[in-house]
Structure formats: structure tokens, C-alpha cells
Design brief:
The chain is α/β, with parallel strands linked by helices. The chain has 11 helices and 12 strands. The structure holds adenosine-5'-diphosphate.
């Protein structure tokens, strides 16, 4: 199989004209970096969000042009507003430190994903705290409440849902030739991950706009409907990419995962502030790897002291959703693609996750039924 080069893709895109008809999109300088991962191709068209409608056919044509290249599998092409590093430049969709001015008063249903009632983010101030493990088991806990649940892995730095659910392969079109893809399925959940498009160990360099366009495409071109809750596993941290995601995704709420160490709690506070800045309700904090239960003696060891996260949550004015122990079974089952809530539903740990899930659901009820309006979604 011939390897695909960025040049080949760029050449193919030269056949696609910008809406004014005068220049092609490559010469117009609006094609982002082109990312090639195996046989899959990803790129974005950086445009003024005001022109999003006019550019949709161009985006579709660009996608088609790339799909027509021999050896190319899936193509993710998306419209994005290039993030300007300097505030105020052109007034484009740069993330800002303050909520956007009055959007859709009363939480009107002008934004969001059709057929998806609520989108929630699972986030952490830093990597390796068990965010993905929590997202997966929280989603299963929500499903055990009788809800229809999906999970979207937006952790571009380390997509882990394929592994956590033991899934391989790629989502298929809902019908031949359709742009819409069926989500993957496991344990009754609908699942999509950037990891189905990019191999877990393929290094991909993501630039800001690409991150958002990949997420937008996974929200708008996956047949999610009907879902009560879509759980989004966010990339760890509180940088620009995360802020943009938090701001531009129509989130009904966020759950923050932290370990009990002080340092991690400082990170958790950063996560909390990030969501508050963009006006997303924080549903609460989960303390992961909270205590250690010795598998030999059954004794509970509170390595990091007890109640730290709960007290901190109180101080920060946010709900404490629960404490999950550091337990080898959680890790082993995760690594085997059999998350504990699904594979050992009667275990104590599964019970803890279900309790967290019901608190999250309760919090969502309190926030009301509609998704928060997204300020600057520019995809169709
Ligand atoms: P993140 O998404 O924050 O990077 P992961 O969910 O991938 O973190 O977890 C990192 C590692 O820690 C994984 O190997 C996972 O199985 C393990 N892990 C997560 N939570 C627990 C837990 N409560 N007990 C034991 N291992 C855990």
C-alpha cells in the first residue's frame, strides 16, 4: 500500500475552490496542518466563523477530494476559526477568560448535538490521575440508572477508550457513502474515540485548531442519537486546547477527577476555575486513588491522609462526588478492557462508581434539562 504524503493531500485539495471562486483553498492559505495517521487524514479549514455556512460545501468538497486519493481511509475535515494568540484580533473565536455575552437566553436549544440531551466533561488538572477510568465507569454507572449513555474520548494526547473497552476497528458509515458514522458499542454504551482514527502509539502533533475541529467532527458526524448523557473524556490539563473545548462544547456540566495529594488538588482547582471561567457548572470532584485496600490483609491504608479532597471541595464550594480507592482490580479490569462497573457489578467499587453516577445525574437534574448554549460552534 502506498504511503500517503501531505503533499499528495495538498495537491488534491488544490482542486477545491474557495467560495469566492477566485482561488483554491490551498492558495488561499486556509488549510491547516495536514495530519496523516496510517491511512487516515485529518485537516481543518481555518475560516472566519461568520462565513461558516458558505464554507460548508467547500469543507465537504475538500473531504471528498482527500477521500478520493488512493490508499486514503477515513478523512476528518472540519471548519475551524483559527485561534488568535493575541486577544481581540479580528474578534474571532479565540478562547477568552470571560463568558461570552448573552447567548441564547434561557438555555435555548440552538446549540448542541441533535438527539443528545446532555453533554458532560470529565476533566483533570493533570494526566495520570485516572480520568479515563473514571469517565468509563461513570458512564457505566449512569447506564445502570437506566439512562442511554455515550462516551466520547477527546483525550487527543492519550486516547485510551479503545483499550479500556477492548475495542478495535473503526466506526462504519450509517449507510454506504454516508458521512455520518455509527458509534462503536460496548456494554450498552455508544463510544467514539480519536483513538479509532489514530493508533494509540502513533505520535501526532496537534495544533490548537485541529483539536477543536476533531472534537466538533466527532460530535456532529457520529450518529449519537438518542442519548440522555454523552460523557466526554477531556484531555488532561488546563491549557488553551482544554479551555477552547470547555468553551465551545455545549456542556451541561463537568466532573473533575483528582488524586488526594496536595499538588494534584492545586491542579484540580485550576480545572475548576477553567470551567467556571467559561460558565460551565462543575458537578463535583471525584477523588481517585483515595486510599489503598491491601489485597492480602483487607486493611484500608489512607496513604495520603483522609478527607483532603472532601475538605478542599467544600472550600472550593463544589460537591464532593466520592472517593475511589487505589485498587489493583480496578487497574487490571481496565487494562483488560472490562471496566469494573460492567464486569464486577456487585463489587464494592462498582457501587462507589454507581453512587458517583447518581450524584452526577442528580446534579444535572438540578441544572435543568437543556444543554448550555455553546458560544462559538461553527460547524453545521
Ligand atoms: P488518565 O486518564 O487520568 O490519564 P487513566 O484512567 O488512564 O488516567 O489511569 C491511569 C492508570 O491508572 C491506568 O493504568 C489505570 O488502570 C490506573 N487507575 C486509574 N484509577 C485507578 C484506581 N482507582 N485504582 C487502581 N488503578 C487505577
Amino acid at each position: 500500500m502506498a504511503t500517503i504524503s501531505k503533499e499528495t493531500v495538498r495537491d488534491a485539495l488544490k482542486a477545491v475552490m474557495a467560495p469566492d471562486g477566485g482561488t483554491d483553498i490551498v492558495s488561499a492559505g486556509i488549510v491547516s496542518e495536514i495530519v496523516i495517521a496510517g491511512e487516515n487524514v485529518m485537516f481543518a479549514l481555518n475560516i472566519d466563523p461568520n462565513n461558516a455556512k458558505a464554507f460548508e460545501p467547500v469543507r465537504a468538497a475538500a473531504q471528498q477530494a482527500a477521500e478520493g486519493i488512493e490508499g486514503v481511509g477515513k478523512v476528518m475535515a472540519a471548519l475551524t476559526a483559527e485561534k488568535k494568540p493575541t486577544p481581540g484580533a479580528n474578534g474571532n473565536a479565540a478562547p477568552t477568560a470571560s463568558p461570552s455575552p448573552a447567548q441564547a437566553p434561557g438555555g435555548a436549544k440552538n446549540a448542541g448535538v441533535p438527539g443528545v440531551d446532555r453533554i458532560i466533561a470529565v476533566a483533570s488538572g493533570k494526566g495520570g490521575v485516572g480520568k479515563s477510568t473514571t469517565a468509563v465507569n461513570l458512564a457505566l454507572g449512569l447506564a445502570s440508572l437506566g439512562l442511554k449513555v455515550g462516551v466520547l474520548d477527546a483525550d487527543i494526547y492519550g486516547p485510551s477508550l479503545p483499550r479500556l473497552f477492548g475495542l478495535t476497528g473503526q466506526p462504519q458509515p450509517v449507510s454506504p457513502g454516508s458521512r455520518m458514522l455509527e458509534p462503536m458499542q460496548a456494554y450498552g454504551l455508544k463510544i467514539m474515540s480519536i483513538g479509532f482514527m489514530v493508533e494509540e502509539d502513533t505520535p501526532v502533533i496537534w495544533r490548537g485548531p485541529m483539536v477543536m475541529s476533531a472534537l466538533q467532527q466527532m460530535l456532529s458526524e457520529i450518529a449519537w442519537a438518542e442519548l440522555d448523557v454523552l460523557v466526554v473524556d477531556m484531555p488532561p490539563g488546563t491549557g488553551d486546547a482544554q479551555l477552547t473545548m470547555a468553551q465551545q462544547t455545549p456542556l451541561a456540566g463537568a466532573v473533575i477527577v483528582s488524586t488526594p495529594q496536595d499538588l494534584a488538588l492545586i491542579d484540580a482547582r485550576k480545572g475548576l476555575n477553567m470551567f467556571r471561567r467559561v460558565d460551565v457548572p462543575v458537578l463535583g470532584i471525584v477523588e481517585n486513588m483515595s486510599y489503598f485496600v491491601c489485597s492480602k490483609c483487607g486493611e484500608r491504608h489512607e496513604i495520603f491522609g483522609h478527607g483532603g479532597a472532601e475538605n478542599e471541595a467544600l472550600k472550593m464550594g463544589v460537591n464532593f462526588l466520592g472517593a475511589v480507592p487505589l485498587d489493583v482490580e480496578i487497574r487490571q479490569r481496565s487494562d483488560a478492557g472490562q471496566p469494573i462497573v460492567a464486569s464486577a457489578p456487585d463489587s464494592e467499587h462498582a457501587g462507589i462508581y454507581r453512587e458517583i453516577a447518581s450524584k452526577v445525574w442528580g446534579g444535572l437534574q438540578a441544572e435543568g434539562p437543556t444543554q448550555r448554549a455553546a458560544p462559538t460552534i461553527i460547524m453545521e
